[in-house]
Amino acid sequence: MAGKKGKKSLFGRFLIWTFWLGLFMSVGFTWYYVERRIPNHLSVVVKEKEEFDFSLPFDVTLLSESEEVVLGNQSDIPSDEIRLKVDEPFSLYAKNLGSYRLGLKLFGRFQFKEIQLDVVDTHYAIPCGIPVGIYLKSNGVLVIGTGRIQCQNGEEVEPAYGVLQSGDYIEAINGEPLRDKEALISNLNHSGGQEALLRVRRNGEEMEIRMNPVQASDGNYKLGAWVRDDTQGIGTMTYVDTNGNFGALGHGISDSDTGEVVEIQEGALYETEIMGIEKGSAGNPGVMAGVIYYGPGSRLGSIEANTKVGIFGKVNEKLQRSLHGEAVEIGYRQDVKKGQAWVRSDVSGEVRDYEIEIQRVDYNPIQENKSLVIRVVDEELLRLTGGIVQGMSGSPILQDGKLVGAVTHVFVQDSTRGYGIFVEDMMRH
Prior knowledge:
Blueprint: H1 2-37, E1 41-45, E2 50-52, E3 60-64, E4 69-71, E5 82-84, E6 90-94, E7 98-106, E8 110-120, E9 124-127, E10 131-146, E11 149-150, E12 156-157, E13 169-173, E14 176-177, H2 181-191, E15 196-202, E16 205-211, E17 214-215, E18 221-222, E19 225-241, E20 245-248, E21 264-278, E22 286-293, E23 299-307, E24 310-315, H3 317-322, E25 328-329, E26 339-345, E27 352-361, E28 372-376, H4 379-385, E29 389-390, E30 396-399, E31 402-411, E32 414-422, H5 423-427
Parallel strand pairs: 1-8, 22-29
Antiparallel strand pairs: 2-6, 3-5, 3-7, 4-6, 7-8, 9-19, 9-25, 10-13, 10-19, 10-21, 11-12, 13-14, 13-15, 15-16, 17-18, 19-20, 20-24, 21-22, 21-23, 23-24, 26-27, 26-30, 27-28, 28-32, 30-31, 31-32
């Protein structure tokens, strides 16, 4: 009898644990599903009704605390909550410009998340798709890594090891601000080996570091650190708005060694010429090869920000005069849907639109610049490039006559497919 009671007790505990595990997994799945399906941020055009359909398989309650935001198809704020059911669309209407908060309750009881609602004017921009040369000057001298120095006596030392880190920015030495690495080298050689006081920015925080330069076998004084102060490359201009502001790339420019987005002091756009295209294939992303024409007469604009969602700044009159095509309306994430779309590019030597398919729309991606999954279906573009190649990042994506996004990445194992970003995330940088 004791054995039977023990077995029953064990089975009972098993059922209890199974119940709680199932409940935990169910809640976790629900949370994950809603989090991915419902965006954290929405933009709607003032005094225009916007339709939404999140297609949720359970009840969700949306609340507005502002009389400026109307939920549903009513002319006034509803006195109670509006419920979103499976395949049940709803609408938002905002009377005035501004930013508002919408609350979200799961099963009508649990406060789940807040949605930031930005009410904006209709925005227009010219979708470009043209290649540009990019030059960035880092904000300080970037430390790539540390290395060993051979001293005049033949001994090898590594003074910067454990002191400086990859991703550090040296802003000043002995109180003198540094504009470039040449200034750092010059200051060290004039120090005669005396202790150097470095002002370093690490992860956004400033600190002071003292180091003793070492005289290398070539007679120069060194810290034992590899440094860089500029970056250049070729990318694609996404848009130029009516005020001459531009956005490009759809992702940040990262240092090739540290992998971190470069913190810039200044930057510029220059004319570039595409000399050839290496087609992409499985496991081998293609690339646009070209030459950048530096010089005052070839300058096209200034870069003011390098962010995770692209580079931004102002174009000059020379570039504005060369732009072809009309400004189109900016589309927001709720405007983007699976199916036919177009990517604008200059890969053939002239700007034209190529057909693509939007295969996935992710409202809350882990990375902002991977909100869309796209596939190239245009036979001409496949013939020219094999799909998406390096240098096409920033190529604008159009759907239903609106500018909705930009190409950001290519799939390494499938050059016909890649990621894209919502253009509203670029414009909100």
